[in-house]
Amino acid sequence: MKISVGNLLSAISHLIDIAQGIREHAPKVTYISLQLSNLLGLKPFEKKKIYYAAFFHDIGITVADKKFITSHIDLNLAKNHCLLGYEFLQKLPLDRDVAEFVKYHHEFYNGSGAFGYDHLATPFASQIINLADQIDIALDFSVPYYLQADNIREWVLKKKGVLFNPIIVEAFLELAQKDRFWLDLYNPHLRQIVMALSLEDEVYFDIEQMLKFSEAISLLIDNKSPFTHVHSQELSQTVYTIAKIMGVDSETANKLKIAGYLHDIGKMVVPNEILNKEGKLTKEEFYIIKSHPYYTKLILSQIPAFKDDIANWAGNHHERIDRSGYPEKLGKDELSLLDRIVGICDVYQALIEDRPYRKGLPQTQALGIISDMVKNGLFLEEEFLLLKRAVS
User: Do 165 and 223 reside in the same domain of the chain?
Assistant: First the structure.
């Protein structure tokens, strides 16, 4: 199995944009950064690293669960999300420069940024991404570009040599003269435009690299709540153990493990205050929680290598054979054994873990509850017996 890193970044950044409530921020910053890189004559390997860093530059905001604009204006919050993004990207099998570029993308030319580093100490790529980031934040996409372009150009020129590198400013001023630049930014299909700009020597992950990537994503997801800090990792190991018990081939077993790591990726759109709420959820909060498997399947289905299996196994983990689950009300005939295995392992893992409203249950009690679910027609005996063998 080969997975395009570009596809992964596009899909994950889409989820980040949904979580932040900002439409296509990551593609816009990536587009501006790549156009600037072209004008500045950067080499292909440098543009490739900027491409990945720009797509993931705000990954730390989702972890920090702060408001988008505030995380860019407040230097402490900016520093925090830069560090969180850096720590996350260091876990991925990408060039180490990508993490460095993200770490310093809120530095300014005169040293007044998040870490206080000036242009001499800040990677040039980070300075490109910073300018692209600031431009997208400054633009009001409810107003036509031709009513704003002059003001944006004047503001950037005013900050030349103060916030922004003069060399990069000159490249932007040249770029900003082109109507196509602005029309592309306003294009509702910008994400596809950016993907078409991806370099010919695209990076692909093999199955082992994808496992590392998925595990890093699972840590990002689970760390949104102190009550779920090992949830996806433990679930992933359990479904993998079941796969081995079943005797499936190695690729299928590893795919199932990836599905376990990524099954809760949709929780990136759920605010922390809901995930960690100690009292009873309101009706609105409950529906927000229930949306997460929808987003899991939506995002994973955008990755061609995941569309026919991993996206379903991960996205169907709250479905039940009696159609009482969510979000699609799928039934016995529509849920595969592997769908149901991820679902029953999710229930088991949730029962044995501490939650804001209760302590984790002993294994025997958890299995007893799931046994009752089987009797009540929520799961089948087949997956329950496999679960018991895996955890005993």
Answer: no
Three-state secondary structure along 24-90?
CHHHHHHHHHHHHHHHCCCCHHHHHHHHHHHHCCCHHHHHHCCCHHHHHHCHHHHHHHHHHHHHHHH
The tens digit of pLDDT for each residue in 250-298 reads 999 999 999 999 999 999 888 878 887 878 889 999 999 999 999 999 9
Helix, coil or strand: residue 318: coil
Residues paired with 3 in a beta bridge = 205
Domain of 265?
Answer: 209-391
Name the token pair of 177: 């003269």
What is d(CA 164, CA 180) in angstroms, rounded to the nearest whole number?
A: 23
Cα(161)–Cα(118) distance, rounded to whole angstroms? 11
Convert the pLDDT of each residue in 225-244 to its tens digit.
666 668 999 999 999 999 99
As a whole number of angstroms, the distance between CA 348 and CA 361 comes to 10
Q: How far is CA 250 from the centre of its chain?
A: 26
Contact, 88 vs 129, CB < 8 A? no
DSSP E strands in 288-389: the ranges are none
Same domain, 267 and 349: yes
pLDDT digits (tens, 9 = 90+) for 348-365: 999 999 877 678 899 999
